[in-house]
Amino acid sequence: AKGGDKGTWQRYQPELHGAMVQRLEIRAALHEAIEGGQFRPMFQPIVDLHTGLIAGVEALVRWEHPARGLLGPFHFIEVAEESGAIVAIGMSVLRAALSQFTRWKTDDPSTSLRYVSVNVSARQFRTPGFVDQVREALAEAGARPEWLLLEITESLVLRDADQVWDDLRALRAMGIRIAIDDFGTGYSSLSYLRQMPVDVLKLDKSFIDDILSSDQQHTMVDTIVTLARNLDLAVVAEGIEDAGQRDALARMGCPYGQGYLFSKPVWPGEITELVRGVLTDI
Ligand code: C2E
Ligand code: CA
Ligand code: CA
Ligand code: CA
Questions:
Q1: DSSP assigned state of 196
Q2: Spatial distance between the Cα atoms of 106 and 13, rounded to a whole number of angstroms
Q3: pTM
Q4: Which among 67, 81, 145, 271 counts the fewest CB atoms within 10 Å?
Q5: Nearest C-alpha neighbor of 92 from the set 43, 35, 135
């Protein structure tokens, strides 16, 4: 241990030590996992609240760990961000999502599925050549740019705006659409929204949780939905867990919703069945 620096090395804390060892283990295992293709996306439906049809799907990464089983992002995404592994993981999710989506479109040209939504971390977005990598991934998968929605965070759009906004404009010029994920949890002022080069707002679950019990939350969501409509932005309400929330959102004119009420994230075969099931219901 470092000598003399009493401020840094205080008492021995077993829990902290355990957590640190685990992070180091994860970090070391990430490389092999990337090489071995152990990261795969599950997909969660995004539903048109007006028609009830599945309009899109969000790709959500899972780690198929050979010893620990299926791991969600909670177990590794922070470490992957810190180490930079998220760049490679993100690209492999993008490629897998695009090739799967192309398969859905090819298998059933009249499918209700219009797009696949893919999360992009700030670090990945700021990697030089990101825009070209996306273009190549589309070409490789035989996917159309209109099929792709990229989800980025509010803080990325606000920080070093110039370079980021240029890249966002380049992606949109290709026909790709951009969503702000977890909208409402950051600090973007509503007036700033008008200028942002984005197409979709994903309203964070924390706003949806209380829309039935809190008049204030209800008013807040209603206001954002109205504002978004006036700005020509689509809205996806996240984390819808019951029919009451869905109905309230539909009444406000919120166009899209996502949440356990409709489906958890599932493997591709189940999406195919859900899409078919919903279609025959109508
Ligand atoms: P997110 O992008 O906000 O994704 C939504 C998360 O909420 C997902 O968790 C989803 O399974 C969960 N969720 C959806 N509907 C409901 C609901 O009705 N109730 C509740 N309680 N939860 C719901 P998941 O899959 O564990 O992902 C967590 C986060 O990890 C994501 O949050 C996203 O920030 C990140 N993430 C996932 N996949 C990727 C990826 O490929 N790249 C990057 N950079 N981040 C990813
Ligand atoms: Ca997301
Ligand atoms: Ca989100
Ligand atoms: Ca979230």
A1: S
A2: 56
A3: 0.93
A4: 67
A5: 35
Q: Is the CB of 255 under 6 A from ligand 1?
A: no
pLDDT higher than threshold 90 for residue 103: yes
Query: What proportions of the chain, in percent to the nearest 5, are helix, strand and coil?
Result: 50, 20, 30
Q: Answer whether 39's CB lies under 8 Å from 62's CB.
A: yes
**Residue 125 banded pLDDT, cuts 50, 70, 90:** very high
Closest CA relative to residue 115, chosen from 102, 124, 125, 128: 102
CA of 182 to the centre of ligand 4 (A): 5
Hey, what amino acid is at 141? A
Span 210-245, pLDDT tens digits: 999 999 999 999 999 999 999 999 999 999 999 999
This complex has an ipTM of 0.98
60 lines ligand 1 (CB under 6 A): yes
Token pair for residue 16? 């902290």
Q: Say what percent of the chain tops pLDDT 70.
A: 92
Nearest-angstrom CA–CA distance, 203 and 236: 6
User: What distance in angstroms lies between residue 47's CA and the mean position of ligand 4's atoms?
Assistant: 17
- Mean of all residue pLDDT scores within the chain: 91
* Tokens 């026909």 found at: 175
Q: Among candidates 117, 139, 125, which has minimal Cα distance to 170? A: 125
* Nearest Cα residue to atom 28 of ligand 1: 73
Q: For tokens 């890249």, name the residue.
A: 167
List pLDDT tens digits, range 160-189.
678 899 999 999 999 999 999 999 887 766
